[in-house]
Design brief:
It is a single chain. The chain has eight helices and 13 strands. With about 290 residues, it is α/β, with parallel strands linked by helices. The strands form three sheets. Strands 7-6-5-8-9-10-11 form a seven-stranded mixed β-sheet.
Length: about 290
């Protein structure tokens, strides 16, 4: 008689708690006691905040409920905030854009090419410019116009869509609307924004033209979590490109869009892989 055994599931556990001795030993012991084989482990103790952060990938045939109970017992002892998920599970994602296509199109392409562990459930826009792009990738398109008079109604429609679709991540892929503080609070830690790195120097319209006029030598992009403080949320990823006096405004824009695509894709990937943990106004990124 052949005895069938359940194939192991690859889990990812992330946690944070006040730093003290014995945390790693307790977590590893609980996982080992339930048949877990750790395949990847990273940890960091922040001397400034006094918090400890850990990300563990573990293979185990133990049912999720049993594994969660064991982790929960350790979490209570150490006052942990923790999360357990399957490695590689596509995160349910909503992408917001306005008129520019480079970031939205890049995320849609990477999802189709299976280069991002996300499931893009729809593209939302305050304009109709991106509708053909969404149709090309066979992703639902939602037009939610925004005016000063309809902003509150539009944001409630957006939140309803997030709840209805059980969205886990909202990506502002050059969405040229400012989310209200109440919506940022409602979706805290679930919204990633991307912007050029000229802020706060070159605000408003035509930032690349302003940068060109000032003879900048570096252009870049910043991906961060959206908060009520505009463009000041915890930073996930940044990158830069060197430029020279010979580069035109259009060339600066092209290079800027390219770095925005790369930075946003990395931030989305790391978030979806549970590699980003919040540490107050900062992030811990286990790459």
């Amino acid at each position: 008689m052949t005895i069938e055994t359940a194939s192991p599931t690859h889990w990812v556990l992330t946690l944070s708690c006040p730093d003290r001795s014995g945390i790693v030993h307790a977590v590893a012991g609980a996982l080992a006691a339930h048949g877990g084989n750790i395949t990847e482990s990273q940890q960091f103790g922040d001397p400034d905040s006094g918090l400890f952060f850990m990300r563990v990938q573990v293979e185990a045939s133990t049912p999720r409920a049993e594994l969660s109970t064991a982790i929960g017992e350790v979490a209570r002892r150490f006052s942990m905030t923790w999360n357990l998920d399957e490695v590689g599970r596509p995160m349910r994602t909503l992408v917001l854009g306005s008129r520019t296509e480079h970031c939205v199109g890049d995320l849609l392409f990477r999802q189709r090419a299976q280069r991002l562990p996300v499931q893009i459930l729809g593209v939302v826009s305050n304009h109709t410019t991106l509708e053909p792009l969404a149709e090309f990738y066979q992703v639902p398109f939602h037009h939610i116009p925004v005016t000063p008079d309809t902003k509150d109604e539009a944001e409630h429609r957006l939140l309803h869509l997030v709840r209805e679709q059980q969205v886990e991540l909202v990506v502002l892929a050059r969405y040229m609307q400012i989310l209200s503080p109440w919506l940022c609070e409602e979706l805290a830690g679930q919204v990633i924004n991307i912007h050029h790195s000229f802020l706060p120097s070159f605000k408003g319209a035509r930032p690349y033209a302003q940068a060109h006029d000032r003879g900048v030598k570096l252009i870049g992009a910043t991906a961060h979590y959206a908060t009520a403080s505009l463009d000041e949320g915890p930073i996930i990823e940044q990158d830069v490109e060197r430029v020279t006096h010979a580069d035109s405004v259009s060339e600066l824009i092209a290079m800027g869009q390219d770095v925005e695509r790369r930075v946003l894709a990395r931030a989305v990937r790391w978030h979806a892989e549970h590699r980003v943990l919040l540490d107050g106004h900062r992030t811990v990124v286990f790459r």
